[in-house]
Amino acid sequence: MYTLGIDIGSTTSKCVILRDGWDIAAASLVRAGIGTDGQRQAVQAVFENGKVSHGEIAASAVTGYGRNTYKGADMTVSELTCHAVGAHMVFPGVRTVIDIGGQDAKVIRLDENGKMLEFVMNDKCAAGTGRFLDVMSAILRVPVGSMEKEAVRADAPAKISSTCTVFAESEVISQLSGGISVPNVVAGICNSVAGRVSGLAKRISIIPDVCMSGGVAQNGGVRTAMSIALNAPVLYSEKAQLFGALGAARYAFISLSKDN
Ligand code: ADP
User: Fold this and answer.
1) Which of 136, 144, 231, 235 is surrounded by the fewest CB atoms within 10 Å?
2) What percent of the chain has pLDDT over 70?
3) Is the shortest distance between the CB of 134 and ligand 1 below 6 Å?
4) In 10 A of CB 208, how many CB atoms?
C-alpha cells in the first residue's frame, strides 16, 4: 500500500511515496517552491520515479509553507509535525530536530515516540535561515553546496557582527575587499547561521540525540558550527531535505490505520 507526502516549501517542492508506511518507494525534489509550478512537477516526478500511478495512492498529505493553497491532497499537516515524524523515522533516538529551510528555522523537541513536545521558531528574519546563506552564496559566487569545502579551509573565520541580512551583505563585501579570504568569510557566515539558530534552540531544552532537517542540513559548514555551538553531535542524513515530505507520507499512513 502506498501513501504520498508533499512538502511545498518557500524555495523547493519535495515529495515522498512510502510503501506500507515505512519504505521509501520514490522521492522527488524540484528547486521551485510556493507560487510556482514546482509542486506539480514534484508530484509528477515522484510518480515517474516510483513507477506508481495516482490510483495506487491510498492517502496523501501536504505540508510546508504552501500547504493551504494545494488542492490535490487528502489532508494538510503542519510542518512541525512532519519534520518531527520524518526525523524520528530516520533517527529513532532523536529528541531535538533543528530544521533550517529556505526562509525559516525551527527547533522541535520530541518524545521517544516522535511526538512534538515543544518548539521555537524564527520566521521573521532572514538571518539564521537558508535565505541568508543563499544571499551570501551569490555575493561570494560560492554555491551553497560548496560552502563546506571552503569553510574547512578557514584558518581565522571572519566575525559577522550585523544581525540583519542586508547589513551583513555590506559587511561581507567590505571584508572581501579588505582582503579576508573566501574560506574565512564562508566559515564566518556558517558560524553566524549556527549562532543564531543555536541561540533559538537554547530557549528550549536541547536533549540528545540532535539532528538537522531541511535543505541547510546539507551544508556541512553549518552542521559543524552548530555542533560546536550546541556542544553536542549533530546527526545528519542525506534525506534531511525530505524529512517534511517523509513525515507527511507517514502521517497519511497513520491516518489510514486510525480510520480503520
Ligand atoms: P524550503 O522547504 O523552505 O523550500 P529547504 O528545506 O528545501 O527549504 O531548504 C532550502 C535551503 O537549503 C536553501 O536556502 C539552501 O541554502 C539550502 N540548500 C539547498 N541545497 C543545498 C546543498 N546541496 N548544500 C547546502 N545547502 C543547500
Assistant:
1) 231
2) 99
3) yes
4) 14
Does 213 sit in the ligand 1 pocket, CB within 6 Å?
no
Pocket test for ligand 1, best of 219, 222, 237, 239 (most atoms within 8 A of CB): 219
Half-sphere exposure of 92 (CA within 13 A, CB side): 1
Mutate which of 216, 224, 226, 238 for ligand 1? The one with the most ligand atoms within 8 Å of its CB, which is 216
Say if strands 210-213 and 13-19 run parallel, antiparallel, or are unpaired.
unpaired
Burial class (CB in 10 A: 0-12, 13-18, 19+), 161: exposed
Distance between CA atoms of 231 and 119, rounded to whole angstroms? 20
Q: Which of 83, 143, 139, 140 is nearest to 114 (CA)?
A: 83
Tally of CB atoms within 10 A around 91: 20
* Residue 33 confidence (pLDDT): 86
pLDDT for 54-106, tens place per residue?
999 999 999 999 999 999 999 999 999 999 999 999 999 999 999 999 999 99
- Average pLDDT in the 172-192 region? 97
- What is residue 100's three-state secondary structure? strand
CB atoms within 10 A of CB 236: 17
- b/e map 31-68, b = 16+ CB within 10 Å: ebbbebebbebbbebbbeebebeeeebebbbbbbbbbe
Q: Is the pTM of this model over 0.70?
A: yes
Residues with Cβ within 8 Å of residue 55, at least 6 apart in sequence: none
Ligand 1 in reach of 215 Cβ (< 6 A): yes
- Whether residue 171 is predicted with pLDDT greater than 90 in this model: the reply is yes
Q: Cell numbers for 24, please give them.
A: 521509501
Binned at pLDDT 50, 70 and 90, residue 10 comes out as very high
